[in-house]
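Input.
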Amino acid sequence: MLFSDRRAAGRELAAQLADRALHSEVASPFVLALPRGGVPVADEVARVLRAPLDVLVVRKIGPPFNPELGVGALTGEDPPLYDERALAMLDLTADRLGAQVAQARTELHRREDLYRGGRPAPDLRGRTVVLVDDGLATGVTAHAALRAVRRGEPARVVLAAPVCSVEAATALAAEADDVVCAHQPRPFGSVGQWYADFEQVSDDEVIDTLRAAHAPG
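Output.
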């Protein structure tokens, strides 16, 4: 399965979630996107579910020799969450990643301020939170996000993505009340290989999407 772009993927994912909503498995939904790539996907989901949309900023932590390789993640002021198996495979320890954690937290706060624009964090109590990303490879960023969402005391947390590795979906099933993946290809490779258009989502696109979602009416 190859998605043309994130919005097409979001529409397919939304169809699966809407079917669950009909059976009351997704009641009183609140859609939270993992920016930046999860935002256009989540926007399509929120439209179909007629649900509010906001973001939960999570930053990946990569080793100094490969910043794009996620060995950990953090949200807000939470301590970092690490993929211990990845650290062991790379012969790394958490105490050697202090500089990377500081950089990730600085960028996280920059994005929170930019995307939220003074809005308070959403009240998730008693809601079904649908946490959306554009794909799940290792699942470490989603794991950190789920940990943060739980503190908001939602009634239920559904993790949703158009494409997931089997390993990530299985591991995260223990953290979420439900994991909804439109496709779980084997072998998985990377998230980007399942999209014809996987251009990076810009800050401006995130801001415009959120502004439209929060506009009156």
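Strands lie at 29-33, 53-55, 59-61, 72-74, 81-82, 128-132, 156-163, 178-183.
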